[in-house]
């Protein structure tokens, strides 16, 4: 079996496809039903905010935000790729820009934003890329502007198993993901993010940990976890990145067994962290 190879800096380890877009939007809604807000309550809002969503994906967070902030706010999405970004019915105050957020942003964007939002980068960033990413994103903020980062402790995900039910396949599928993430260098300590905010000079840093416990979202969380693991393993397989799985058929067989456990009442459970800090 092939030896694991490290991804290049900033290399994204999920596929970009319609299925992944649908998964991201379902994940967004399931998380929101647990988090309850788009902007952390500490963020002071006004009618002419300029807000960026970095690593915007489909742009779902920006589109939802456009529905709750005045149309006088400017909303900008940045991403390495616009292949998942949905332009259907896009409000006029949302714009998209290509940008790797590990590289310096063009001068026109620096110091211009009231809020920078980042969401779900666990599969995108190597463990040593989080601190440089935070420092780079701070360059976009105006004095007094906020950095908000919403992410999940995917590596700490556990399977809840009802009595008398077999949950070993669902746990095994998660273990493939965890081992694969470590093999490609993407195993962040999300608990360190709050400290990275503080060490980067942000003030009033706050972390809220939100366990995804709303039972109404359990099925969608299961779906999006299974989809995420499948897309990660397929992306890794296609790039010869990890030696954990040999073929698409093997991935599909592992997925089917995990789904079988979930259909008997097992469910994935993990925390979402919301970290916010203000530029002085
Ligand atoms: C897991 S998706 C999350 C998308 C969106 N934030 C959400 O919550 O649904 C990660 C997104 O970040 C983008 N991304 C990954 N690495 C990036 C980088 N270095 N610079 C800019 N975008 C990046 C990917 O292209 C992808 O669209």
From TrEMBL:
Keywords: Methyltransferase, Transferase. It holds the Pfam family Methyltransf_23. InterPro entries: SAM-dependent_MTases_sf. GO terms for biological process: methylation. The keyword Methyltransferase applies. GO terms for molecular function: methyltransferase activity. The keyword rRNA-binding does not apply. This is S-adenosyl-L-methionine-dependent methyltransferase. It comes from Aspergillus pseudoustus.
């Amino acid at each position: 079996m092939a030896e694991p190879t490290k991804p290049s800096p900033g290399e994204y380890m999920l596929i970009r496809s319609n299925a992944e877009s649908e998964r991201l939007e379902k994940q967004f809604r399931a998380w929101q039903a647990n988090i309850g807000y788009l902007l952390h309550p500490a963020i002071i809002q006004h009618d002419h905010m300029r807000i960026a969503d970095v690593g915007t994906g489909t742009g779902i967070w920006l589109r939802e935000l456009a529905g709750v902030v005045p149309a006088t706010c400017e909303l900008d999405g940045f991403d390495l790729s616009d292949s998942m970004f949905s332009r259907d019915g896009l409000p006029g105050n949302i714009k998209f820009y290509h940008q790797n957020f590990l590289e310096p942003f063009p001068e026109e964007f620096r110091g211009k934003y009231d809020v920078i939002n980042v969401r779900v980068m666990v599969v995108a960033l190597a463990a040593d890329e989080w601190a440089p990413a935070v420092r780079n994103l701070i360059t976009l903020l105006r004095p007094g502007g906020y950095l908000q980062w919403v992410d999940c402790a995917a590596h700490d995900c556990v399977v809840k198993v009802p009595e008398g039910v077999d949950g070993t396949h669902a746990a095994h599928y998660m273990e493939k993901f965890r081992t694969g993430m470590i093999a490609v260098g993407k195993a962040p300590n999300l608990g360190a993010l709050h400290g990275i905010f503080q060490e980067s000079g942000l003030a009033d840093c706050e972390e809220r940990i939100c366990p995804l416990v709303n039972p109404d979202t359990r099925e969608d969380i299961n779906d999006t976890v299974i989809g995420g693991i499948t897309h990660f393993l397929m992306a890794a397989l296609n790039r010869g990145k990890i030696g954990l799985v040999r073929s698409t058929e093997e991935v599909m067989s592992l997925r089917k067994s995990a789904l079988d456990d979930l259909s008997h009442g097992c469910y994935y459970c993990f925390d979402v962290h919301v970290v916010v800090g203000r530029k002085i």
